[in-house]
Amino acid sequence: MPPMPIIAAKDLCKHYRVGERDPGVKGFLRHFFKRKYKTVEAVKGVTFDINPGEMVGFLGPNGAGKTTVLKMLTGLIHPTSGSAVIDGRVPFHRETAFLKSITLVMGQKQQLIWDLPAMDSLRINASVYDIPQPEFEARIKELSNMLSLDGELKKPVRKLSLGERMKAELMAALVHQPTILFLDEPTLGLDVNAQAAVRDFLRDYNRKYNATILLTSHYMADITALCERVLMIHEGNLIYDGSLDGVTQRFAPYREVRLELCEPLEKRELEKYGEVESIEGREVRFIVPQENLTSAMNRMLAELAIVDLAVSDPPIEQIIGKLFKEGMNGEGTEARRDGGTKGGGQGA
Amino acid sequence: MSVVLRRVRTFLSVYNALMMEMRAEIVLWMLATTFPLIMMGVWYQAGESGKFALTAAAFAQYFTALFIIRQFTIVWVIYEFEGDVLQGRLSPYLLQPIDPVWRYVAQHTAERFTRMPFVAVLVGVLLVMVPDTRWSPGAGDLLLGALLTYLAFVLRFIIQYTFALLAFWTERAVAVENLWFMVYLFLSGLLGPLDVYSPTMRTIAMATPFPYMMYFPAQALLGRDPGMPWLWVLAILAGWIVLFLVINRLLWRVALKRYSAMGA
Fold it and tell me: Does the beta carbon of A129 lie under 8 angstroms from any beta carbon of chain B?
């Protein structure tokens, strides 16, 4: 029997009415006397399930609707239609048990009190979530060990580095030990080391508490390091729900061929073997459609003087970046469930 | 109960620390709210002319009492709340199992503790410099004055928090409250004691919540006759509190549905 999903979104829609105004005084006057509105469909019928313990990446370009979905799942905004059920509860009823089981971390927002040490904000949260003092101290010790953040908790938040502040934000968001984490760009603006530290922490937290994590990030490294399953949203539609590997098969039916030649060659001489991605001296990178791969390689081996040859999938960052940059090119609104992970099944 | 007490203790302790950090700003805010002292200067001169119901000393004492009450009833929740809504800072608060209003209540309460020593110094200086401002309230006057001042703060907070909820609909909730504040200035007794208003203006003022937030607490502190039984004053003040509390809670429910984390 498949596990019961802990997060279930069904046909979630969110429409906003936004005022439209032409520029200038004339536009202002026209808007003042006769307001024009347009309806923005931020999210258009998104459906997915997530099982307990899964870490799922939520991808999409800016304005795709990721944050709106997260806000609907946490009960911050009401869906225009459709339903969301989180651990058997309706988010926007804001039941205490629900609020104690979830957290939402928004990388660009902060809940820590700016002028006070982070420990003061943590104390507030401990009292809000009714965490007994000994338990609170134990959790702080544990979380600060996991995040390598100790003495910094006594410094005013304004004096912390961005990385330290983000770690302290994570502590504040997790001190009540939620089992469902909605993370919206938790590594935004952090340097590479701080990003890695946050990723390690999230992995450990997921393992330790069997926490379910839905994570959005612009850094593909976050997704590839943490998530086996991804949801992709574009213009409010869920366009993919499946394994990370499946993204390559679905959206990048081509391979990358790297050649090291004996002698450098002109681009026009190389183009007959496939799309030339780059040439650096004797090293050439081709993008070759999957169906032409065998014949293209046979020709290369027969006609070119090759020192070394390697075939690989293009990097996931490149695929997704290209995908969002070029648009979905008629990809339907139905989520692709390649990789057979509809409803998860990859729980950590 | 222990949960509530722990929350109260923690909130007050943390926000006290925050207000201590902001002590310089608090002194400046206090100095910026010396409006009753300015009005004292104006009315003191008028009182000396003998054309009004009150003497110069009575005016001086009235505005000193007003200054003290104003320091304890000052409310700024609308600025804080509007910023939180527009900047999306309210979102994390809404995801916690406690009404966000308690944070603002704790901030205001903690600020009173920080403000108190500075108020004491300023009032002390005033009493020394202007002998006419001095009066000797009885213990009963002080107790009643303190109770009315506290209730006036509660009413003023609830009213301003109700206006603050308009931030869910408009980015100009503060501007709307400023309009209300103009009427408050005039009818509360801040511009002048209601004793010198015309009977019509007095009747109009009494039909509003404003005199119960300034004039009556001042009358109590000064041990003067309010013109009606004190129990009536307390009952009417309590009635205004209940009325605005009901409006506030209804508006909050509607506002929560509307909230879409603007600016997030």
Answer: yes
